[in-house]
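Consortium newsletter contribution from the modelling node. Members have asked for a concrete example of what our holo predictions look like. Here is one, prepared for the S-adenosylmethionine complex that several groups have been discussing at recent meetings.
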Amino acid sequence: MRKIEYTTHPITYQMNPDRSMRSNKELIELCKSQGVKGYSGKKKEDLLALLEAVPAVSDVPAVSDVPAVSAVSAVSAVSAVESLPRPLRMVDLFAGTGAFSHAFQETGQVQVVFANDMVDHSKQIYDANFTHTLTLQDLNDVSVTDVPTHHLLTGGFPCQPFSIAGKQEGFNDVRSNVFWKILEILDHHRPPFVILENVKNLVSHDQGNTFTTIKRHLTDRGYHLCVRVLNTAEITGIPQHRERIYIVCIQSKAIADRFTLDFPAIPKRTIESLLDPADDIPDKYYYTDKSSTWALVQESVTKRNTIYQYRRVYVRENKSNECPTLTANMGAGGHNVPLVVDDRGIRKLTPRECFRFQGFPESYVLPALSDSHLYKLAGNAVSVPVVRLIADRMMALLS
Ligand SMILES: C[S@@+](CC[C@H](N)C(=O)[O-])C[C@H]1O[C@@H](n2cnc3c(N)ncnc32)[C@H](O)[C@@H]1O
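And here is the predicted structure:
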């Protein structure tokens, strides 16, 4: 079997220090990646002048300009000296519940060496479930040198900051957007694998400019991308409709060529199989005739093995026997927590049941947080079994 060589050491770009040796096209790419504006229609001298203000050491090269990264991929693909060490070292950014950490550590071949989030309830759930602790800090304030070397970086990064991506304005303030911070970490550590996750409409956001920008910055760094929208309900058996985009970035072309995000559809479990027995559910989750929405809810929520959503003035029945996508704002203001009917009546899903609909195991500790915080953590999370499918496939390719 061919062995594969990787490095986790920071790789310095082997850039041509003299920009005047570069073609116009390359200089334009450089302008784009550096957020330098006004390059359109410019001659070479003007492009060089525009780039003058940007230090050459931070050049972000076009794919064809990345000898160091390409060299690693080439070595990885052919000459291969030794396998990646086990356990693989993983960094979990925007860790939230720790779903990425959990799913990868469950393979037995990965050890999380750094996890970060900026909200306290994330730290509480994370620290309750792992032996290492989560670094509670705005990622923008984390120095790349404080992030340990690693082989795999994961992140379900927030996507709101991309509202003006593609029109270039957002590129002026590097700190305004954590995506640039991810890139800074990648530039410093060059992990062989990166997995990013986001909402499905990241692809269509800003007429596709956002996604084009993201892909360009990743491929410019020598990564081969495998991108796919995956639906929890289709491929894991967990009946939650949750379509999320997964961007798997692999340094080695040989590995990337054999990696896919195609997973077969499997039968869904029933809704009822994920619900707790009615006797175990605290009263506070049940609707009563004292609830202001009682009449509407009582009239609408009638079928077993079905989940309903309260939507301000009406109740929507999910006719696919799936839980609708759990969201971060469910539980805030009482809206959008999915409803079911059981032996005792009509009620909201409990936080534990929401974690179950995200594929967390029963052993996953839910700390003593308010329900609204737990619902938010569950609604923000990646589905554990989706990540596990990706993790297993990745590990199989490396063994
Ligand atoms: C979509 S959630 C990711 C959830 C996570 N993947 C999971 O499975 O639970 C995004 C997370 O990013 C965190 N976050 C947003 N901006 C951040 C920043 N600047 N620094 C650190 N964490 C941040 C939020 O607190 C939130 O937990």
